[in-house]
Amino acid sequence: MHIYIILSLIISAIGLIGTIIKRDMILKLINLGVFQSGNVLFFVSIAYKGLSPIITLNIDKYSDPLIHSFLLTVVVIGFANLSLMLVFIMILSNKIKTHLIDEIEDKISRG
Questions:
Q1: Which residues pair with 24 in a beta bridge?
Q2: For residue 83, what are the contacts with CB-CB under 8 A and spacing of at least 6?
Q3: How many CB atoms lie within 10 A of CB 71?
Q4: Where are the bilayer-spanning segments (predicted)?
Q5: Which end of the chain is more exposed for a tag (fewer CB within 10 A), N or C?
């Protein structure tokens, strides 16, 4: 189980570093999705205990389905946020004709 926690931290770090380093807004959104996936994997790996309370009978230690349902909500809301940000980037790139943050800042500062 520890391998999943380590893997989730690596995935989150890759997404966070990519979000900070990349200058293209669409690549930043992709890296935000990677960061969110790493966080969801981290919480799922913490909540998972190896047994399902629905299928297995006479068990003392089981995974809590409430945490998994919360994480499903996090995934859905994260997808909605990413798609809304993509729409905003599309509108902005149609007006300014670029996805690069440096060029957008230059064009906005020039007026």
A1: 100
A2: none
A3: 17
A4: 6-22, 29-48, 68-92
A5: C
Whole-model pTM over 0.85: no
The amino acid present at 95, given as its one-letter code, is K
Other CB atoms within 10 Å distance of the CB of residue 64: 12
> How far is the first Cα of the chain from the last one, in angstroms, to the nearest whole number?
54
| DSSP secondary structure code for residue 64 in this structure | -
Distance from chain centroid for Cα 99 = 20
**What are the structural domains, with CATH classification, of the chain?**
2-110 (1.10.287.3510)
The pair of three-digit structure tokens given for residue 63, joined into one six-digit string: 């995974």
Decide: 67 and 42 in contact? Cβ < 8 Å.
Answer: no
Mean pLDDT over each residue of the chain, to the nearest integer: 87
Asked if pLDDT for residue 51 goes beyond 80, the answer is no
CA pair distance 45, 3, nearest whole angstrom:
9
Q: Extract the tokens encoding 46.
A: 């913490």
